[in-house]
Amino acid sequence: MTLKAGDQVPEFTLRRGDGSEFTRADLEGKTTVLVFYPFAFSPVCTDQLNLYDEVLDDFGAAGATLYGVSCDSTYAQTAFQDRLGVRIEQLSDFEPKGETCRAFGVYHPGGFPQRALVIVGPDARVLWSYQADSPGELPGANLIFDALAPA
Amino acid sequence: MTELGSAPVPELGPEDHVRGPEDGRVLIEYGDFECPYCAAMSERLAGMACRLVFRHFPVRSSHPRAWPAACAAEAAGLQGRFWEMHDLLFADQGRLEDPHLWQRAETLGLDLERFERDRRSPDVEARVKRDFRSGVRGGVVTTPTVFADGRMHAGRFESL
Q1: Residues B86, B73: contact at Cβ < 8 Å?
Q2: Chain A: residues touching B (Cβ < 8 Å)
Q3: CA-to-CA dists, residue A33 to A36, A52, A78, A122, A135, angstroms
Q4: Segment A59-107, tens digit of pLDDT
Q5: Which residues on B lie below 8 Å from A81 (Cβ)?
Q6: How far apart are alpha carbons B137 and B124 in whole angstroms?
Q7: A146–B142 CB contact, under 8 Å
Q8: A130: which strand partners?
């Protein structure tokens, strides 16, 4: 099951585009939106990143940093990002494959991340999470902005 | 901070581009001039006796010419020819570069200097952006998306 609001984020390691590590420590002190998506270059993932990128400045204004997370290799993710021309940084869960996705409860039995959104607060606790009913469903950016709104 | 939070898409308002019979069923389309499915949708909607509202939903990374095309339609609108430009853009999506936009403006007999100034103006950009943001708030994630009788129909749907 996807981590829920209030859950502590477990230790994890993802890889940035330059191969360096991105861990739980990188979540601390800021609000982060992790956008788990099934596959680089697949149609819905393309629409999703394009749409979120179009309002990326608004996410920044709402105090949040977005990252795309998939099990694709860093090279594939970088190529995907370049191809789309989006600014959203990509994080790779390639090896051991899907380990971070499993830790967040968003690993699909088919071997890829569920389409899920996890917002993590500055204390590395989950503020909000959302898992699409099917990987083909694209959650609107409005849902993230609703979740980022102060209670 | 929350200005893109969920909200119903605005009803038909005085600033909207609208055509079709006044007593027709109101269909509000969020579209992108570089999107082939939107072109197909516009053909389909043209054949329906509806009151059609067109709002811009250009996503630049999918369609690099969607924004310039949307601004061109707005600039034509400032000279009273929005729908003519809308139709000309959808009629030939392979030609959306600047010279192609000028060509269309010429075809429509627009004041070219004014067209050129307007399509690059902050007001026109703000107008397109306002449409886009109202769509985001309403949950639009893809084009075309049509709102009819308060319901959202996203993508290439069969029934309207």
Answers
A1: yes
A2: 46-51, 53-55, 58, 61-63, 84-86, 138-143, 145-146, 148-150
A3: 9, 11, 19, 11, 18
A4: 999 999 999 999 999 999 999 999 999 999 999 999 999 999 999 999 9
A5: none
A6: 20
A7: no
A8: A117
DSSP string, B80-127: T-HHHHHHHHHHTTT--SHHHHHHHHHHTT--HHHHHHHHTSHHHHHH
> Which chain B residues have a beta carbon less than 8 Å from that of A54?
59-61, 132
Among candidates B56, B61, B49, which has minimal Cα distance to B71? B56
Q: The complex's ipTM?
A: 0.89
The architecture CATH gives domain A13-132? 3-Layer(aba) Sandwich (3.40)
Chains A–B, number of C-beta pairs less than 8 Å apart? 70
Contacts of A134 (CB under 8 A, 6+ apart): A115
pLDDT at B1 > cutoff 50:
no
In contact, B128 and B70? CB cutoff 8 Å: yes
- Name which of A25, A18, A31 is nearest A127 in CA terms: A31
CA dist list (Å): B36 to A49, A125, B31, B59, B63:
19, 43, 10, 13, 10
What does the pLDDT read at residue A9? 97
* Of A59, A55, A12, residue with least CA distance to B61: A55
pLDDT of residue B157: 64
Q: Do A142 and B139 lie within an 8 Å CB cutoff?
A: yes
Q: Could you state, in order of their start, the residue ranges of all structural domains in chain B?
A: 17-154
* Domain residue extents for chain A: 13-132
Query: Residue B23: is it exposed, middle or buried by C-beta count within 10 angstroms (0-12/13-18/19+)?
Result: exposed
Single pTM value for the model: 0.92
CATH class of the region B17-154: alpha beta
Is beta strand A64-70 parallel, antiparallel or unpaired with respect to A89-92?
A: parallel
